[in-house]
Fold this protein.
Amino acid sequence: MALLVRHGWWDRLQQLMRSLDKTADAKHITAAVSAFRRAGKYDAAKEGLLKLEDIPGLLQLNVEEERWDDAFLLQTAHSQLKEQVYIPYAKWLLSRDRFAEACAAYCEGGRPEQGLAILQQLADNAVTQRRYADAAHGHFQLATEALKAIQNHPASMTAADRQAFDMFSRHYGVAEMYYAYSIIQAAAHQRFKTVDDSTLFNAARFLLMRVLGRDTPKGIAISEALLALAGQARAQGAFKLARFAYSRLQALALPAAVAADVEMASLMLRAQPFTDAEVLLPICYRCQATNATLNTQGDFCTNCGAPFLRSFITFDVLPLVEFELEPGITDTEAQALLGEDTVSQPAAGSRGVELGPNDAGGGANVLRLDDEGGGAGGFNTLGLSSGKSGLLDDPFATQAMIPHTPIRLGRAALRRLRPGEVLTCSWPNPALPKQWFKLLDEDQPVVVGPCGHFFEAEEFEMAVLEHGQAPFSRLPVPRDITAADASMSADLGAALQRSRPSMQQGSGKDLTRQWPGL
């Protein structure tokens, strides 16, 4: 055998190996396999390992030759060898700058700490290079990995689950802030205008409501957000808000030229009224209270405490109010109950026509026109009759007027809700329940993205057509799923999850912000 190896007579060595007994001559077959591997004779080495029934050796051969399809096929039949495939595969991906896929491979191979370290380094590098949209995506992926670690229902979380949730909340919040700041940064430094004025105004307000009085993530310059807010506030008639922004800027250490401009703009602003345009004041869709243009305590209603649910393209407030299910009602049962007791009535804020029996008796049919507004028989923005018993008979409206308490609906209330005015948000982690929302304006279709954020249906479709991927999450969107296909009650995130690429392609999973019971 040594003579055959010395002269490179590989065909004769392979014939000799075939004549050996796998039990009695295992030592010689192993030596032949080693010689074939050193010589790069993959097929001959594979034949010898198959004869020895050496599955770990065969797997190692496929890894050394970078034959990943064969390696994964073999690992599928022998799951105990997962680490021997995924860890070398992750290193191979790293050598080709495929970092997201390498992180997923490390996690699949039982070394999530190494995968998280890669994602954290990528996010930090993006911040250093001022690629804030990429930094937002990196923290979104970190939040995704933290979400996977939650094992129990939010009402019965363990210490490990709570730690994973805290990590998810931290990274998800940072991702949102970097995403908003990327819009401000692009508007300030790009030569051509790529951001709508209202989007820039809303993004600046959203970011400042998150960072003022709190720890600011690395790389985010509050001065740039304040400058963007001040300029847009002046242009749109929010003079009180502009004064606030300029006063904050004057307290910062700015370049001399910028400080001079701020000082001049602040002096010129004194000629304007100390008010904000009413059209810019956000209205809470839960309690109908009018809020200030900027709440330094956070992005929520100062009257009832309900968070403002924004579109993560334009950062406009969407007509959504979250509610919970009463204990004992499953998601499946709730979905089946929707619309069972609904009657023909006009949508919220619309002019309706109702044809029915005369309540006064006599058996005659009457035609009643419900006018728009708050008159008798009208409908308010909660979609409720403002007549004598409309408000008191609707559990949703009754609970919505009680501040700082969750809205919980039972079976009777769910039967009265039309399926078209209910939006659900479900997540891939089976331990996490669905979130339920009531859409108060059915003329404004809303969809849930794979990232857990809400979007107006038309703007979501336009963003997907423009960029070829979902906003914020950067996940691919199937061609057969469009905004027209996703109705107001459609769970677009679940549809995307079902059609998502495999782990080897480096895809993530959906996220949520908060769950009942936390």
User: Anything to note?
Assistant: The radius of gyration is 31 Å. The chain has 21 helices and eight strands. Confidence is low (pLDDT under 50) at residues 346-362, 369-379, 383-389, 481-518. The longest helix spans residues 159-189.
